[in-house]
TrEMBL record, chains A, B:
Domain Tryptophan synthase beta chain-like PALP: 83-386
UniProt xrefs under Gene3D superfamilies: 3.40.50.1100
Lineage summary: Bacteria, Pseudomonadati, Pseudomonadota, Alphaproteobacteria, Hyphomicrobiales
Domain of life: Bacteria
Pfam family, one: PALP
UniProt cross-references to SUPFAM superfamilies, sorted A to Z: Tryptophan synthase beta subunit-like PLP-dependent enzymes (SSF53686)
Cofactor(s) needed for function: pyridoxal 5'-phosphate
Cited CDD domains: Thr-synth_1
Keyword Lyase: yes
EC number: 4.2.3.1
Organism per entry: Microvirga terrae
GO MF assignments: threonine synthase activity
Protein name in UniProt: Threonine synthase
Keyword Transmembrane: no
Amino acid sequence: MNANANLITERPTFVTHLECSWTGEIYEADKPHNLSRAGKPLLVRYDLKGVRAALSKDELSQRPNDLWRWRELLPVRRAADIVSLGETTTPLVPLARSKVGGGGEVLVKDEGRLPTGSFKARGLVMAVSMAKAFGIGHLAMPSNGNAGAALAAYASRAGMRATVFCPEDTPEINLSEIALQGASVYRVNGLIDDCGKLVAQGRETTGWFDVSTLKEPYRIEGKKTMGLELAEQLGWELPDVIFYPTGGGTGLIGMWKAFDELEAIGFIGSKRPRMVAVQAEGCAPMVRAFEDGTETATRWENAHTLAWGIRVPQAVGDFLILRAVRDSGGFAMAVSDEAITDAVASVARDDGLLLSPEGGATVVAYRQALTDGRVRRDERVVLFNCATGLKYPLPPMHASLDRTKPIDFAKLA
Amino acid sequence: MNANANLITERPTFVTHLECSWTGEIYEADKPHNLSRAGKPLLVRYDLKGVRAALSKDELSQRPNDLWRWRELLPVRRAADIVSLGETTTPLVPLARSKVGGGGEVLVKDEGRLPTGSFKARGLVMAVSMAKAFGIGHLAMPSNGNAGAALAAYASRAGMRATVFCPEDTPEINLSEIALQGASVYRVNGLIDDCGKLVAQGRETTGWFDVSTLKEPYRIEGKKTMGLELAEQLGWELPDVIFYPTGGGTGLIGMWKAFDELEAIGFIGSKRPRMVAVQAEGCAPMVRAFEDGTETATRWENAHTLAWGIRVPQAVGDFLILRAVRDSGGFAMAVSDEAITDAVASVARDDGLLLSPEGGATVVAYRQALTDGRVRRDERVVLFNCATGLKYPLPPMHASLDRTKPIDFAKLA
């Protein structure tokens, strides 16, 4: 097996068209698109009967372990358009000592292992590869940090320009990473949706292509590979519950789409996990809409949380998130920053796994859901850790020893 | 295929004994060891005929993609002793736009994808698993940062104590990571070998077990999986040249051992890569010894380099590094901090790959070796990026936009 077989093998492609997620209106596949005429996300549709005939589980299992193994369910038509930095399958790491309650199996999908250290790589590798296929030269987006870093990396690799707008309190490490990886990055006095407005405003003058969350159709196709991978890793038996830290929600929507596609090609049955959208108490528009029973969500004013990745006051895919959560029998819940900090610390200390705050939020939500009975102890649960904890400012540590003086080793025993 | 099959399947084990790397003296396998009576590293020996009969390439290819797939060539005897955080196979990412000269294939083995973001995970997962098998309760080591982080993570996961001593100028991010992951960590006014002396001094009082580089036999067994993986990923055809950032040198020694073991079990032939030990100009004891033609290396005084991971003034495995380099027809070379910084910047900017400074050092060395003719353009080269660039202080970035005022988008085009 050639380790880069997925990147160089020409493949049959099965994309038939794109479809407005709100009206169902059909759009042509092989040209660039942003939102539909209704201002809603476009979804990529495949000839799933064709995929079913072309792909077997056995064939799949022979391919190298990266997201490009899902060739038939991805939109890239020519291998030459793939812009890769090594998108390896991420591991499922069980919580062991830090697991609460015991009994249930709690698996952390550790997305920090992807290029640029976050799950944003999945979406951006697909968006940039498609942009390359379309001959686009300049991409722009708003970002709380991780998406911008992934965009910068893939755009540079493809020889494209990238421009990223970040909220002004975005951590220095994220801005530096974006800039080092060749993008133009600006701090903006506002939140991520304010940054998004700049991308829209500058579009005509600059000619850049808007790759904001769900405002182009391919990031979701990349993100759906989380669901594809999960199904295969668990032997084609989906978990009982998935806790997903939800900002723009692309991954949650993408996984939900992936499960339907896997069922259509005969790889799984009709069983679905309950999808749980996890947000922060300081920015919980989906939780509010879920509890209010509304189909869409209104903007969350004065959004604040240390979990930057889910500080998204308003999501263009709000109705898709809410539909997936409701159709799955799942729920939405908000957790406090204080509990997030505690959870990150306890999982690092007890299990050696340094989660991102967003990943920590799923731990908190799981613990709360166990307590309030919405999840049972005998259920298999997957928590998404969307980025490595190394991408976030860590609390300082200051213990020192002077080796030129006598050391009381008994105190270190 | 069960995704964690490598972690739960009981395996035949083939370790026969340990052997002093200097005198050849034999040591019993199934008990804890530090250095040999000669004060030199111990090497683990296997019944390779047994492995040859037990393991086929086809069988191997069916197993999940993590370092535990190499069951028969690893020292852990019982699956229950494995302490895992998901040690997935790391990708080989080709340099594309930042490649110099063109022609040759330059593959970066991106070790930053491992748990705790560095290749130190390979060695420590093995050392900690073996310590668990031996019932050891407290581990200690000196570290420039990454090894300590890996030790902390695995020790915490195994429920063991860990104590780490770091040079006082170790970056804050590394100290914080080590502390968060449950270890006791101390800054010490000195370099890594000074820190190592504290581990030795405190041993009797504290009862901790010394897991310093090459001072216990199993880190090298973990590190050798870099060589095993590389061989398999390249279709059992080793590359022409390997550039390895060399501090303690465990990985270089380990890969060289791995290649011999692979040949003994019939997976590869006698072809070997030229092994190139890359050091920094401010700390180049191996380069000096290589050029002086000596069998061992003397301590490098006043060591300094921004590539912390290779700031190792004196290595207990010096003669093993020098032997591997010489036997392979390779060489040792030193690069400047300035060139490292430039290389990290150029690879990030042009190829979207944020290397560690140590990884950047291999890029510099490759470029220099191309120029001086020690490597030809038609040779296939592997560079080791030993950690994610996110674990190192990044240069600050400060461009901002005021969204409340008119923005001249033409300047951003």
